Structures are given as structure tokens and as C-alpha cells.
Amino acid sequence: MLDARTISLVRAGFKSVLAAENGPEKLARSFYAQLFVEHPEFRFFFPASMDQQRDHFVRALAYVFDNLDKDERVVPFLEQLGRDHRKHGIDGSHFRAGGSALIAAFRNFVGNEVWTDEVESAWNDTLDLVCGSMADAADSDELPPYWGGTVVEHQRVLDDLAIVRLQLDASIPYFPGQYVSVQIPQRPKLWRYLSPAIPSNPQGEIEFHVRRVSGGWVSPAMVGETVVGDRWAVSPPLGGLAVDRAIPEDVLMIAGGTGLAPLRAQIMDMAHRSRNPRVHLFMSGVYPRDLYDAVTLWQLSLSNPWLTVVPVTEQYENPWWHSSPAIELPSGMHHRLQGQIGRVVTQFGSWADRQIQICGSPSMVRTTLYALRRVGTPMEHVQHDPL
Ligand SMILES: Cc1cc2nc3c(=O)[nH]c(=O)nc-3n(C[C@H](O)[C@H](O)[C@H](O)COP(=O)(O)OP(=O)(O)OC[C@H]3O[C@@H](n4cnc5c(N)ncnc54)[C@H](O)[C@@H]3O)c2cc1C
Predict the structure, then answer these.
(1) Complete domains list, the chain, with CATH
(2) pLDDT of residue 361
(3) Ligand 1 centroid to 50 CA: how many Å?
(4) Residue 194 Cβ contacting ligand 1 at under 6 Å
(5) pLDDT reported for residue 325
(6) How far is the CA of 213 from the centre of ligand 1 (A)?
(7) What is the pLDDT of residue 328?
(8) Does any ligand 1 atom lie closer than 6 A to the CB of residue 261?
(9) Measured in angstroms, how far is the CA atom of residue 296 from the centroid of ligand 1?
(10) Which residue from 80, 28, 85 is spatially nearest to 57, judged by alpha carbons?
């Protein structure tokens, strides 16, 4: 645990970085430059383009410095980050080298006048904690850094959406609702998070639903270039979206597009249990075509009376350029509601008596959170993955 003075010195220093013109980018550039000069072999761990890497680095630093006084938040975050980095070939010793590079970068940034002995000692103590937590978690993890898997099916359900099924070399012990990091042969070293759409099983079968993000580096290749036989790498599970069975509250699930995947995996897992809370699932998309998996969810609801599925779309009709075959909603299904998902859900009230999960694109999650907050939903009841 760091003392209040140390935390305030480090936060003040980082705040000066955020306030300076291009400050975060300059700090990140300087950090990686220091790291690669001291340890040229580290360059191999990173992709050719470092833009997104620098962005993630600054966002992670901001989260850590914001939460330095909350051990219960910062320590699990750092441990997860430490374990997750193993997929790049990084171990505990690399984190300590990273700590030294960050101190050097920060010192360069603020200049010698601000860099007093007290500031130096605050940064040393903080980075000992940060790098130590990451290094210990990375070195003590018993799971492999990643598993291999072979693509056995690539189904292009929409022009911009594919369902990809893999046969893993060994089963991955994830809980339904967790996500993993994936690397594909077409884009080496560019790992992306995906949420398995089925529960883990001993046969090592896994399914992902991937949406092509326009201008993205990896998702267009996952959707457009993947072929049966490709070898993917899949890292250990992360995240903790889950239905809390220890509390009596029923469940509200809100899915946007492929955000359905981790909710579907949980529902499929619940279908194997004899007792479940009631689950109300709103599955949404911009256009009717985005409800690509409505039939599966409808079938699940037929044999599981605790599950209600409500389809929602922002637009009533598919776009004129839509080229995939039309998806018909089953005739007995709840009729499709129209409107922006946050508004539609909150028309029914604040759902204050529910545990709530929201999954979708960052903008869908943000606008849904905003809508729920406006109607007074207790935010401590709401779970979502990191944005
Ligand atoms: C916890 C978690 C779970 C995820 N699960 C899934 C999943 O199951 N299926 C799936 O298809 N995707 C999922 N994603 C998103 C996925 O990890 C990638 O971010 C997405 O595929 C874009 O990668 P890219 O390389 O194509 O784009 P990038 O090159 O990384 O980014 C290009 C641009 O697109 C923006 N962008 C990134 N992601 C999105 C997004 N989801 N929607 C809109 N704009 C975006 C970026 O801000 C950037 O401006 C998940 C993300 C997280 C954090």
C-alpha cells in the first residue's frame, strides 16, 4: 500500500503529462524508445505499428494512477495485465525493465527542475508496486501463455459478420461470460479480444462471433480472410461477467450485435442447470439483419421458461445495400421493438431489482449506461467488460 503523499506526487506528475500538448503520446513514445534502446530484443514482442500499443499503454497507466488508493481494484487489474502479457512472450523480468524505462521517460518529460529526490522516490515506490504485481502474477500463472486451435468452420452469416468455430488443441478453462485474446495468422502479433459464444467444453470446441470494424486492422481479416485449417492462438481467459447466484435478483441482459456472444454462452450454461433466476434478454442491432442469431435464442427460450428474448432494432428496414439473405424472426417470438436500445430498455423502468449485464460496442455500452443512469438504475447492479 502506498502512502498518500507518494500517490499525490505520482498523480500530479501524470496529470502534467495529460495536460501538455500531445503529452500522453510523447510520454509513450519516449517510454518505448527507452525500452528498445536498453533492450533491443524487446522490439520483437511488439507489432510493426505501435499506435494502438501506445494508446493502450497510456489508458492502462491512467487507470492505475486513478486507482492507486484502491488496492481492491488496482491489484487485480495489474495481475490480469501481467498474466495477459505472457502471450507476447513477456515474463516477470521484462516488467521490471519496463518500470525503469517509464521512470526514465517521465524524468525526461518533466525535466530536472521538477524531478526532485522526493519525486524520484515516489515513482520508484509506485513502479515497484506496479511492476512487482504484474511480474509476480505473470511468473506464478500455471496456465500456458496461449493455446493453439484450428479453424474448422468459417460461416459468413452477414457480409460483415462471421461465426468462426475452432477445434482447440486442448480445452481452455474459461467461465461463460469471460473473454480471451486471439491472434490470427494473417495479422501476427496483433492480438484482439473476443468473447466465446459457447461454454467451455472438454472437447476443446470454441465458437466466436466476429464483426468487421471498418478500417480495423484485424477484424476485417477475421471476417474476410479466415479459411478452414487456419491456426489461431487463444490466450487464457479474462474478465468476470457472471450471473451472481448468491443474490436473489433476476437478470437483465442487454446485447448489441456480437455483444450477444458472452451472454449466449452464459444462457447456454444456465440451460444445463435445474434452477435459474429469470433472465430477460434484449438482443439488439441497428438493422433487422443484425439479429443474426435470433433463432438460436428463440429455441433456447422455448425449452427454458425462465428466459425471455426481446428483439430490438434501431431501423425498421434493412439498408438498401444489404446483400446477405434476409433473416426471418420466428413467428412466435416477441415482436421486434424499434428504437435505440438504451431508450427501449428504459421505457420499461429502471430495472432496479435486476442484476444487469451490458455487452456490445464501446459506444453501445456507453449510451446504454447513460440511459440507465438517467432513469435511476443503481450502477452497482450493472456489469460490463472493459471498454
Ligand atoms: C472484452 C472485449 C470483448 C470483445 N469481444 C468481441 C467479440 O466477441 N466479437 C467481436 O467482433 N469483437 C469483440 N471485441 C472487439 C475486438 O476486440 C476488436 O476491438 C474489434 O474486432 C476491432 O478490431 P480491429 O483490429 O479490426 O480494429 P482496430 O484496428 O483495433 O481499431 C480500428 C478502429 O475501430 C474502433 N473500434 C475498435 N473496436 C470497435 C468495436 N467493437 N466497435 C466499433 N469500433 C471499434 C477503434 O477505436 C479504432 O478507431 C471485444 C472487445 C473487448 C474489449
Answers:
(1) 4-140 (1.10.490.10), 147-234 (2.40.30.10), 250-383 (3.40.50.80)
(2) 96
(3) 17
(4) yes
(5) 67
(6) 7
(7) 81
(8) yes
(9) 24
(10) 28
